[in-house]
Amino acid sequence: MGIPPESNQKSSPITEILVKLVLAGILLSPVLFILQQFFVFVTYIPEESKRKNSEVMQNLALTNRVQGSYILENGSFAKTFNELSIGTLQGGDVDSSKTFQYKLAIPSKDLAIIGAKPMDEEKNGFNGAALRYKNRKGFFAVRSIICESAVVGADGTNPKNSPIISTSGKLICAAEWKVLREDNEEPSDRELAELIQNKAKDEIADLFPLH
Q1: CA–CA distance from 152 to each of 36, 116, 122, 169 (Å)?
Q2: Which residues of the chain have pLDDT under 70?
Q3: pLDDT at 41
Q4: H or E element: which one contains 148?
Q5: β-sheet bridge partners, residue 101
Q6: Residue 142: which of 108, 177, 112 has the closest Cα?
Q7: C-alpha to C-alpha distance for 180 and 124, rounded to whole angstroms
Q8: Which residues pair with 130 in a beta bridge?
């Protein structure tokens, strides 16, 4: 029996391309896996940072808001976390979580400070403030601000890092600190009217309580 002659037919271009792609995929699989894990890691870092910072932002914002309500109702700021009754922070003027130490300060009768010192020296410091002032209608109102340090390890509970009152009567962050959130705007006439109306309703309710 004779030996069949060798085939002179060449592989089609499409077949060659597919073979090359398969071989490239096999060779690049470890590299692609490493790149995938790297992107997952670098994406996780900011998300984890946001999650951890959400605690301090929530506590500062809540403290500012409750301090604003507290002074408008009582004529003075709360000096302890127990007086504020915000739930997440308790005790006297100092309390701690796993990530931050918090401290209340009342530099003046119209200004309340809440500072946050990071437990990790590689994290930024935070602080906030609530300021009582008289609006253009002559009624007491409250401005607030939340600041973050521009450098890691900064102590948000240190008075020299606290927000201050500008010459225009607004709250501003200390040098090398940036604004994260602020409420420095005057309320509109409509908002003022609603505040006055709600205040009047509260006073009437106190005079004639429902039984």
Answers
A1: 29, 13, 5, 29
A2: 1-12, 22, 24-25, 27-52, 185-211
A3: 37
A4: strand 140-152
A5: 96, 117
A6: 112
A7: 13
A8: 112, 144
Question: What SS3 class is residue 178?
Answer: strand
pLDDT of residue 46: 42
Phi, psi of 170 (to 5 degrees): -100, 160
**The pair of three-digit structure tokens given for residue 12, joined into one six-digit string:** 């089609």
Torsion from C-alpha of 51, 55, 61, 65, nearest 10 degrees: 140
pLDDT confidence of residue 92: 96
Q: C-alpha 186: how far from its chain's center?
A: 23
Residue type, 36: Q
- How many residues are listed for the chain in this entry? 211
The H or E element spanning position 200 is: helix 189-207
The pLDDT value given to residue 40: 40
